[in-house]
Amino acid sequence: MKQAFTLAEVFLLHSVRRRRTAFTLAEVLITLGIIGVVAAITLPVLIQNHRKHVVETRLAKFYTTINQAIQMSETVNGDKKYWDYIGRSFETGEDGLPDYSKSQAMAWFNKYLKPYMKFAKAESFNSGNSEGMVAVYFLDGSLLNFSVLGWYFYPYAKDFKKISRENGTIVYDPTISGTKSFPFLFSPADTSEANKHHYNKGLEPYMWDWDGDVDTLKNNTNYGCSKTMPRFARSYCTPLIMFNGWKIPKDYPLKF
């Protein structure tokens, strides 16, 4: 015959079992401490890997998108080798002074690229030395900044910093090349030996005067992708990634 328990005995038995399976405050605090240590170790790595993945994805997408736009533009504007030169200065306003919202580079963009690309907005500004620049903001959060002097792609538009001056002009604050900005070059008409990797091509990673040796992309004293190079001079970082299938190499010399 089964033993019967009173209601009080059942409640007491349940309480004892709960006490046996519950954690003490000390055990909870130790567990939380361990979780905190593990998170502190792993989160920076996860954040860095995520940023690297975004950089890889947006670089590859930008390269494809911009060159598709150039190819479509050629069907209307002819061979890119004969396109207009990108002007350096600005249009003149009604007051006879440069209108920094209307650079000659923007006029070039409006003619050759704007009709063939999807983007959020494009704006013109003064770089600080009377050089007209154009910033093109893309829908994925990236940005292209270009002028007659160079083309720079920013996987994160927020890394492109502009500084307003008292006289109303806007200058840009260059960021670290090879991690936040990536140089490209559009030079399809130049037949010089130094431009051989860009002649008759669209927008390519910066390979001016490159000898074709992959090791030179890291060791070149003018453009090498190296920690010892000035942070604005690491132009060969872009082709280093491209030649690895738009994946950042495991031995990439810079940290994100």
User: Mean pLDDT, rounded to whole units?
Assistant: 85
Order of helices and strands: HHEEHEEEEEEEEHH
Integer tally of domains: 1
| Major β-sheet strand ordering | 3-4-5-6-9-10
What does this structure look like?
The structure is a single chain. By secondary structure, the protein is α+β, with helices and mostly antiparallel strands. It has one domain. It is 34% helix and 18% strand. It is built from five helices and ten strands; from the N terminus they run ααββαββββββββαα. The chain has helices at 7-21, 25-77, 104-112, 216-219, 237-242; strands at residues 90-92, 98-103, 121-126, 132-137, 143-147, 150-154, 161-164, 170-173, 182-185, 204-205. The strands form three sheets. Strands 3-4-5-6-9-10 form a six-stranded antiparallel sheet. The chain has a two-stranded antiparallel sheet with strand order 1-2.
Name a few traits of the molecule.
256 residues, six-stranded antiparallel β-sheet, two-stranded antiparallel sheet
Compact summary:
By secondary structure, the chain is an alpha+beta fold.
List the helices and strands and how they pair.
Elements: H1 7-21, H2 25-77, E1 90-92, E2 98-103, H3 104-112, E3 121-126, E4 132-137, E5 143-147, E6 150-154, E7 161-164, E8 170-173, E9 182-185, E10 204-205, H4 216-219, H5 237-242
Antiparallel strand pairs: 1-2, 3-4, 4-5, 5-6, 6-9, 7-8, 9-10
